[in-house]
Each structure stands twice: as structure tokens, then as C-alpha cells.
Amino acid sequence: MCGIIGYTGKEQAAPKLLLGLKRLEYRGYDSAGIAVSSEGGFSVCKKKGRVSELNGAEKIKGVCGVGHTRWATHGAPSERNAHPHAFGRFVLVHNGIIENYLPLKEECEGRGEKFISETDSEVIAHLLEYYDRGDVLAALKETAARLEGSYALAVMCRDEPNVLYAARRKSPLIVGRGKEGLYLASDVPAIAECGELYSLCDGEFAVLPGDKIRFYGEEGEIKKETMKLVSKSDIPEKGEYAHFMLKEMHEIPAAIANSLINFEDDFCFSAINIVLCQTEYIQIVACGTAYHSGIAAKYAIEALARVPVEVTVASEYRYRDPIVKKGTLVLAVSQSGETADTLAAAELAKERGATVIAITNVPDSSITQIAHFVLFTRAGREIAVAATKSFNAQLALLFSLAVALAKAKGRETVPSLRPLPALAEEVVSEAEKMKEIAPMLLGAKSVYFIGRGADYCAALEGSLKLKEISYLPSEGYPAGELKHGTLALIDKGTPVIAILMQEGLSEKTMNAVFEVYARGGRVILVTNLPEYAARKEVYRSVLLPKCEELFSPILSVIPLQALAYYTSLARGNDPDKPRNLAKSVTVE
Ligand code: F6R
Hints:
Blueprint (H helix, E strand, L loop, with lengths): L2 E7 L3 H12 L6 E8 L2 E8 L15 E7 L14 E3 L2 E6 L5 H10 L11 H10 L4 H11 L4 E7 L2 E10 L4 E5 L2 E5 L10 E4 L5 E4 L5 E3 L4 E2 L21 H7 L1 H8 L10 H9 L2 E6 L1 H18 L3 E5 H4 L10 E7 L5 H12 L3 E6 L5 H5 L2 E4 L12 H20 L11 H11 L3 H4 L9 E5 L2 H17 L3 E5 L16 E6 L5 H13 L3 E6 L2 H4 L4 E6 L9 H18 L18
Parallel strand pairs: 15-16, 15-17, 17-18, 18-19, 20-21, 20-22, 22-23, 23-24
Antiparallel strand pairs: 1-4, 1-10, 2-3, 2-4, 5-6, 6-7, 7-8, 8-12, 9-10, 9-11, 12-13, 13-14
Helix pairs in contact: 3-4, 6-12, 6-13, 8-12, 8-15, 12-18, 13-18, 15-18
């Protein structure tokens, strides 16, 4: 949800800002802009569209500047609404939402001030100008105290042309020192070359006067610990692949292998093992793809450990007055660790007495500051907006947790997770075959995904992937629910993707396949049961290797991710940057 960047140092700022924005573009890409301090003011370049639209901006001269790539919340994507926003002596970029911007704007307009954009962010520049009495940090603190909502802010003042000011609340902000200057950014890869990195916490401020970094909290100046440095592999590169999404699908086997945890082998997990022994009840909170991994985890945990699990979309959990009984463990699952609803749900669960374990792919993300314990998926940076390898990694970690919980509850035989990376390798190597199936979806009005139990989780995720990057209407259903309404939508040629990876449920799922066939629908069966692949009612089939059935979504989702990818390409879309979406949903 918007990427921000800032640089101050000895070298030209514009090329550094543009490079950082390119690396942050996955956070939003409907408009972009930079502002650079120049003689007596700022040179600003803003454009609707992607960072590449900022033609010529690299030539702007000056050694201090800020930049922004936007995912619109208030006001349509346009040059006028693009950041940076300026008023009086101030120019700024903002990531987040100012919830009380309307009364603040009225207050400023009451003083006769004019607004240019429809954004919530512009009001911050007006408040800075109002509160500045020669001490920019004091003005920033006074302004921040008036703001409700979330912000990561990078601010420049005309009176101090080489100084960057920053503030953070509920939106990530990293400060870095490189060889040739100081940086601010929403995310680490944007400033990966820095030899020294710091993560601002909520309520903290930073001042970067070109040579040193100063941090401030409520009480005054503070010292901060440096973060772990990034390795080269953390810097997003597509390499030989046409898209990040394709590259990330090829990284699934490694993501699974790195995210399988043996809780018994590792001393660090002994504290979590104690929590597991005391767990009577589990609540999983998450959004989107991460919510789907929670559904697969529910089936695995309940079957293996016999502990009841409730999975709730985080935006519902946070507003529904949830019951948190003694012995409740909450798993907050978030690839980015920054999703606003998941953070709020985790905070609420903690307030109500639950033990909270965060499951995230991003070290130092906001959720790691809330949870009692953190388990990291080790999928590596995920850049494509559509989650792929992070989903498989979440499943690997959650299945490991299911096994650990089963052992903690005294179950003696538990299935092995070890074969999963090699099986995933086999499936990924065949995924290109989905290119032949994608054309079948092109003329469809809508596409349905069905399955039961663990297969239902794969159906939900397959459907989400397809809609988000191909823009085809699609639904995922429990196979048994089809005849309770949705069957009315099946007619000649309607594509239905049926997932069947569980022998015990095969006849039941096949009944739904027969019902679809009888209405002229075309069934594409994703299965590990060859006897069903050959049935006349099956229009096309995708044969997968066998694995422990409860864990099977980790494999069956791979051809579905590939199907979405090739359908998106066939429809002329950019699978890495689907319209209206952004990678990290830091606003409600
Ligand atoms: C879909 C997708 C989103 C995210 C959701 C939660 O491909 O990526 O549905 O899964 O926005 O994001 P995280 O996991 O970062 O909390």
C-alpha cells in the first residue's frame, strides 16, 4: 500500500529515488512522483501510472529528496493526487491512511488554506506549515499528535534543504546508512545496499541531516539497535524468468523445505512446545491467501491433534467481539506481517488473554512486535502481488505445527512432512502444462473450483489466484455445496476445476463432477487418483503424485497457481501487477 523513499547525501538524489521506487513498486503502482531540494525550493515530478512514467526525472539536480509510488485510497489515481504533496515550506510523502483528515482539512480551509488534491495526505503538509515555529521536529511531533490512523512519513522543509524528517505509526519505515548517504524506505530491499539499517517503531521519529541519524521517542532522543543486514538474495531480481510470479512458483520446493520445522530438534522451539501442551483451542486469523492456509491448517490440526480450530478472516475477527477462553492459542498468519486487519486481530486477541504466535515471511515486520512468539516462513522475498511460494511455505509451517501439536497431545503416529519438497519439485516441473489448459478459460463468463476438506482449501486459493490476476469471475466451493445453489450457474461449457486428492472422499467429489457433466459443464480434474482422470465425464485432467492427504493442498495448489498465471498472460495482463491491488495491505 504505497512505497516511500528518501535520500540525503553527497550524490544526486533523483537516480537513487527512482531505483528505490522501482524496487517498491509491488506496494502500489497507480501513480508515482519525486521531489528534490533545489535552489530556493523543490523540483517535483509526478505522473499517473508506473514509476517508468517519470521520464526525465533522473535529470533533476539535488542531493536530498523523497519519492512515492501510490496505491490510491482517497482520490482517484491521477497526477494531482500523486505524492509528493507540498504546502508552504514543506513537501512530503505518506504511506497509510489519515482517518480524521476531513475535520483537519476543514480546520485548514477555515484558515483560508487551499487544497490541490483529494488525498488525505495533503492535510499533513498544511499542519506542518501551521505548527512550524522554526523547529521542524517539534512541528512534526505536534502534527503527528493530531493525526488518527496510520502513517509512514518522509518530510522535507525548504529552510533545511538537505535534512530528511521521518515519522511512523502502524506503517513500516526503515532508515539506512549507505556509503554515499542516508536513506528512508518502506521496505528493506529498496535500500538493500545500506551497510546499517534500523526499523522505526510506532511513535518514533528520525532526523537525517545528511551525515548522522538521530532517533526520537515520546521522551526525547533514543538509541536504536541495527537490524540484520540483507543478503544479495533479498534484492528482488527476475533473473531468467519473464515474471516474478513465475520465478516465485519455481522457488516453491525450496520455500517448503526451508519452512518445515522440526519442533523437537530445535532448542528455540521448546517455549512454543510448552504453549502447545497447554493449548485447548486455536483461533487462526488472516486475510486472503493466508486465510486459505489457515483453512488447510484447521483440517490438519483437528485431524492430527484433535484440538478444535476456528479460522476467521481478520477483518471479521477484529469487529466481532471474539470469545477468547483460557488455553486459547491465536495464530496470526501474514506473509508481509503488515496487513492492517491481521495486526488489529492479533492485538485484540492478545488484549483478551490469548497467546499469540505470528507466522510471517518478513523479519522485523510489524506483527513481530505484537506477537508473543514468531515463527518465520522462509520463502524468501515475495514480489509478485499474487502470493504463491509464501502460501506453500505457510502450509509447510502450519503442517509442522499440526504435527508438533499432535505429539504434544500424546499422539504417537504422525505423518511425515519430509517427502513434500521433492514432491513439490516434481509438480512444479510439470506446471508449464497448464499453458494448454488456460485457453479453455478464456471465453468463460465464470469459472468454479470445487473440492472437499483439504481439497476445498486448494479450491479457494485456486479461485482467488485466477480472479486476482486474470480478472475472470470465479468462486471456490465445497464440492457438496454445489447443488445448494451454484449448480444453477453451470451450463454448456462452464469450466469447473475439481480437486480430488483424498481417496476416502473420491466418490463424493466425483458425484459433483457427474452433476456438472450432466449440465454440460467441462470438468478439469486435478487429482492423484489416475482411475478418475480417465473417466469420460472428465474433460481434461492434471495428474499429481500421491502424498499424505491432509497435506495435499501444498501440491494441488501448484497447477492452480500456474493456471492463473497462464490465463493472465493469455488475457494480456501483467500477472505481477494486477489492477487495483498491491502487495502489502497496510490500510483497512
Ligand atoms: C493474494 C494475496 C492476498 C494476501 C492478503 C494477506 O494473492 O496475496 O490475498 O494474501 O492480502 O496478505 P498478508 O499475508 O501479507 O497478510
